Amino acid sequence: MKSLKHILLITTLLSGGLYLISPVMADEHGRHGSMGWKTSLSESQNKQLASLKLDYKKKAYPLKLNLKQARLELASLIATDKPSHKNIDKKIDEIVKLKAEKMRLKVAHKIEVRKILNKDQQVQFDLKLMKKAFHGKKGGRHGHH
User: Fold this and answer.
1) Residue 30, CB half-sphere, CA atoms under 13 Å: how many?
2) Among 12, 26, 30, 49, fewest CB within 10 Å belongs to which?
3) Which pTM was predicted?
4) pLDDT digit string (tens) for 50-61?
């Protein structure tokens, strides 16, 4: 039992030690290696990206609201004594369509962002894109799927 406690203590110390090292490494490599392209933006690029982001948010916000509404409606359809599979399937189709539209909008935005970047920034951007595609959202908001 004593050795188990020692192992747990050592594991905790090692993982804590690694946690303390990671912020230092993050600064060297630009926020876990993924923010490098943002730190090298010119003033002109920042202005262009801000404009793109605003345009994207204006288009994405209504989609997000519609998705939330559709999910609430789906929950209501399910939470009845006699759920209608036909109505549930229609609502699922609506949700899938909204998600696809949101994804298309997001991809189009990323393509536009990438056009503003120089070659070196594109490499960093692409690396972040690939990493996100492989790992998904990390430490993200709970309840969003």
Assistant:
1) 13
2) 12
3) 0.66
4) 999 999 999 999
The single-letter DSSP state of residue 35 is S
Cα–Cα distance measured from residue 114 to residue 39, given in angstroms and rounded to the nearest whole number: 15
Give me the sign of the Cα torsion angle 117, 63, 102, 36: positive
CATH for the stretch 34-133: 1.20.120.1490
Task: Find the Cα–Cα–Cα–Cα dihedral 35, 40, 42, 46, rounded to 10°.
Answer: 0
Question: How are the residues of the chain apportioned to helix, strand and coil, as percentages rounded to the nearest 5?
Answer: 80, 0, 20
Residue 32 banded pLDDT, cuts 50, 70, 90:
very low
> Cα 115 vs. chain centroid, distance in angstroms?
21
